[in-house]
Amino acid sequence: MRRARIRQVFGGTSAGILMGLCALSGCRKGEDAAPAPRQEELEMTLGQENVARAEVRQLRSGPGISGNLQARTAAAVRAEVGGTILDIKAQQGQVVKKGEELARIEDVTLKDQLIAASAAVRTARSALQVAEAEQERATRLSKAGVITQRDFERAELSVEQAKGQLAEARSRHALAQEQLNRARVVAPFAGVVSERQASAGDVVQPSAPLFTVVDPRTLRLEASVPAAQLEQVKVDTPVEFHVTGYGDRAFRGTVERINPVVDPATGQVRIYVAIPNTDLQLLAGLFAEGRVASKGTQAVAIPIDAIDDTGTEPAVLRIQEGRAQRVNVRLGLRDEVARQVEVRSGLEDGDVVLLGAARSEVAEGGRVKVSSPRPDSKPVEEAGPGVGGSEAPPPPSSGARQPTPRPASTQPPAEDAAPSH
């Protein structure tokens, strides 16, 4: 009886322990099965250099051209007489007037030749006076019948010979005077001395190069266009181009002449563009690259870098209500110089789109925030090589910004400043 009671007690105790363990295990299982708290959706923060705003702007398109700027009027000033250079009065970069003396060559021998030529003129003039006096006397004697007709004709012939000798002497005198004047090297027109090839003391021969004078007020650009695009190039067609060393500043000219012969080796036609340079800002020799602006339109445009053409239709990522939205667009005229493309449908004026590497970093439908520009930075709308400018900004080195907070936004690229990283 006692042994049965003990078993009953232990049995109840074991059941309680088991029930407790089950209860504890059940509670932990319930705790493990509880749903995890919902994570907050991340927001991608982009800088001003990663976006662009669709704007109405003037677009142009046409055959691309490139080449070096040349002075439209240039002259190689050479020595016209031989001798020692006595003095140099012009240096590189010096502005000169037409007829201004650039150098002087030794002229002692030339002066002596001029003196001899002057003496010969005086002698010939005196001989002519004597011959004319003899002719007058012979005329009177011939009328009186004192001399024969042959003597009279000889007197007339002597006059003609004296006149010829005087003319020859005067011609030699003029040549000597001209040679003496050539000892003074002068500027052929108003311009700037670009090169000087001689120095004082040099002994030069005729035709030796001394200076190069150019007129920088009008430059010329020689370039070639494919013959297949020749119909887009006409005389007086405007040309737009950029010049090395002047950033994104645009310059303009007009097609002045078109070569009538196609180069058989390249299949291209040579064109000549006149470029006014009255403010003397451009320099001959600089490399220029642009296009013949044969077509133009004014429409909503975005940088070419914003277009995603990997799919069947071109598309952009537009930021709307804080999220990236993929939008198919229909494109029109491309402006390769300004790096802009016309958007005929899909976007409206003022829409903000992603650029470059930011398009691959931001997923469609993801939350996006564009940081405000710094107080000293230029606004997005300003023209230039940045958002909404004439040239698409280069893709940032690190792509789109990570969703971690960052300091003030990077300054957008400006016309004369490279994008900061």
TrEMBL record:
Domain CusB-like beta-barrel: 221-295
Molecular function in Gene Ontology: efflux transmembrane transporter activity
Region (Disordered): 363-421
Pfam families in the cross-refs: Beta-barrel_RND_2 (PF25954), BSH_CzcB (PF25973)
Family annotation (Gene3D superfamilies): 2.40.30.170, 2.40.420.20, 2.40.50.100, Helix hairpin bin
Coiled-coil intervals: 152-186
Keywords in alphabetical order: Coiled coil
Annotated Gene Ontology cellular component terms: efflux pump complex
Family statement: Belongs to the membrane fusion protein (MFP) (TC 8.A.1) family.
Official protein name in the record: Efflux transporter, RND family, MFP subunit
